[in-house]
Specification:
Elements: E1 3-5, H1 13-23, H2 35-40, E2 58-64, H3 69-84, H4 97-102, H5 107-116, E3 123-132, H6 138-148, E4 155-159, H7 160-168, E5 176-179, E6 202-204, H8 210-221, E7 226-232, H9 240-251, E8 253-259, H10 267-285, E9 291-294, H11 305-313, E10 319-321, H12 326-329, E11 334-337, H13 341-356, E12 373-377, H14 378-384, H15 390-395, E13 398-401
Parallel strand pairs: 2-3, 2-4, 4-5, 5-6, 7-8, 7-9, 9-10, 10-11, 12-13
Antiparallel strand pairs: 1-13, 11-12
Helix pairs in contact: 3-13, 8-9, 10-11
Length: 404
C-alpha cells in the first residue's frame, strides 16, 4: 500500500530553519523566502489585460528539448498564473493538473490542445511554432523562429538550458522567456541574474545554485567523502559547476562519469541507451563512493529508476536527487527540492505579463528562491540502513512508503 505522510509539526520547524540558515537555503533575512513576496517584487502600475494595437491576440511560440513531465507541470502553472492575472479566460485551459499526471501529457500535447482552445481575447498559441530540440534539426528550428518572429508569433517561451541557449543566441526581434534552466548565467542564456540579462529581449528564471545548496544539506544529514555522479550530455545542464563547488566548500571528492548524448527516439535506441546507463551504474557502484547524486536527463523513464539504482543499493550507497520528486517515489532516497511550482509559475507568468505591458524583458527581476521541500523514501532508507531520526522526519514534507 502506497502511503504519503505529510508532516506539519511546528515544534521542529525552528530546527530546520536554523539548519537552513547555516546552509544558505534561506533568503537574506534568515527566513525561508516567501514566494508571494518574490512575486510582489514584480508589481507594476498597470498590468491590465489588453490586445495588440490592431485588436488581435498576442501569439506565443514554445521551444523544449523533449518529453519531460516536470516541464509539463511547470508550463501548466505558468498558464494558471496567466489565467489568475486575467490574460487567459478563467476555466478555458483544455487540461487540468490532474490530466498532466494521469495522462502524462507532454508539453507538445499541451501545446497542440492550446492551439485549438479559445483562451479568451488576449493570448493564443501559434500554429507550427512548437519545437523539440531533441528530435528536430536545430538549424531548421532556428530558421523557423527567425522567420516567424513578429509575424507568426510575438513571444517565445523556452524550457530549460538547451532551448534557452539556442533561442537567446538567435537575436530575435521578439522577447523570449526561459524557465527551469539549471544555470542561465553559466550557460550564457543571460549575462547576469542581478544586473540585467545583457539582451533587452531575453529573460530567464533563476533559482540560484540549486545543486550547491542541495548538496550542503544532504551532507549535513549524513556526511560523505566521495560523491558519485553520472552526467548525460552538457555538464552545465546537470549542474556540474555547482557540484564541484560544493565539493570544494564542504569537503568531498567527486567521482564523475560522462555519457555523450545518444539517440533515444525509438524503442531500440532507448533500450540501447539504458543498457549503457546501467553499465555506468554498475561501474560506479564499484568505485569508492559513499553517496550518489542523480542529475538531470539521465533516467527520464521512471520505470527504469529501480533497475539503475539497485547496483548502488547493493553497496548501501544513498541516492540523492537534483530534480523531480518522482525519482523518490520510484526508488531514490531523498530530494530537497525547489518544489513550489505554483508560485514559480506565477513568477514566470508575471514576467510575461510585464513584457506584454511594454517592459523590457532584459531589465526584469529574474531570481526566485523557493522555500525548500523535502521528500524521503522510507523504504529505501530502511533497506540501506540510512539514519533518519524523528526530528528529521518531523520536518519532511513527504515521507513515502509502500509498506504497511
Amino acid at each position: 500500500m502506497t502511503t504519503f505522510f505529510r508532516t506539519k509539526v511546528r515544534r521542529y520547524a525552528a530546527i530546520l530553519l536554523a539548519g537552513l540558515m547555516v546552509l544558505g537555503l534561506t533568503g537574506c533575512s534568515g527566513q525561508a523566502v516567501d514566494s508571494i513576496q518574490a512575486v510582489s517584487t514584480m508589481e507594476t502600475a498597470d498590468l491590465t489585460p489588453h490586445t495588440k494595437e490592431d485588436g488581435s491576440r498576442y501569439r506565443f511560440a514554445y521551444v523544449d528539448y523533449d518529453e519531460y513531465l516536470p516541464a509539463s507541470r511547470q508550463l501548466f502553472y505558468i498558464l494558471k498564473g496567466l489565467e489568475e492575472a486575467g490574460w487567459i479566460r478563467e476555466g478555458s485551459l483544455p487540461f487540468t493538473a490532474e490530466d498532466i499526471e494521469t495522462k502524462e501529457l507532454s508539453t507538445r500535447q499541451m501545446y497542440e490542445a492550446l492551439i485549438t482552445a479559445d483562451l479568451g481575447d488576449y493570448i493564443e498559441f501559434a500554429k507550427d511554432a512548437f519545437f523539440y530540440l531533441g528530435y528536430e534539426d536545430e538549424d531548421s528550428i532556428a530558421q523557423s523562429l527567425k522567420e516567424g518572429a513578429g509575424s507568426r508569433f510575438d513571444l517565445v517561451i523556452t524550457f530549460g538550458t538547451s532551448a534557452g541557449v539556442l533561442v537567446s543566441g538567435l537575436g530575435l526581434s521578439v522577447p523570449m522567456v526561459d524557465f527551469s534552466a539549471t544555470d542561465p548565467v553559466a550557460s550564457g542564456i543571460i549575462a547576469s541574474s542581478t544586473e540585467g540579462s545583457g539582451n533587452p529581449n531575453v529573460w530567464a528564471q533563476v533559482e540560484a545554485s540549486v545543486p550547491l545548496r542541495q548538496l550542503k544539506y544532504y551532507h549535513s544529514i549524513k556526511p560523505f567523502d566521495h560523491l558519485g555522479i553520472i552526467v548525460y550530455g552538457d555538464e552545465i545542464i546537470s549542474g556540474v559547476p555547482d557540484i564541484m563547488k560544493a565539493g570544494e566548500e564542504v569537503g568531498f571528492d567527486v567521482v564523475k562519469y560522462n555519457i555523450e548524448e545518444q539517440p533515444r527516439e525509438t524503442d531500440e535506441e532507448l533500450a540501447a541507451y539504458y543498457d549503457l546507463v546501467e553499465e555506468s551504474f554498475k561501474n560506479m557502484a564499484e568505485e569508492d563512493i559513499d553517496a550518489f547524486f542523480l542529475t538531470l536527463d539521465l533516467v527520464n523513464d521512471m520505470s527504469m529508476v529501480p533497475r539503475m539504482l539497485q547496483h548502488l543499493y547493493e553497496k548501501n550507497i544513498p541516492v540523492y536527487v537534483l530534480d523531480d520528486v518522482n525519482n523518490v517515489y520510484n526508488g531514490a532516497l531523498m530530494i530537497i527540492s525547489a518544489y513550489d511550482i505554483e508560485n514559480v509559475g506565477r513568477f514566470v507568468s508575471n514576467a510575461i505579463v510585464k513584457i506584454l505591458c511594454g517592459e523590457e524583458a532584459g531589465s526584469l527581476p529574474c531570481i526566485y528562491t523557493s522555500a525548500p521541500y523535502i521528500c524521503v523514501n522510507l523504504d529505501v532508507a530502511e533497506d540501506i540502513g540510512y539514519p533518519l531520526n524523528f526530528e528529521f522526519l518531523a520536518v519532511c514534507d513527504e515521507i513515502y512508503t509502500e509498506r504497511k
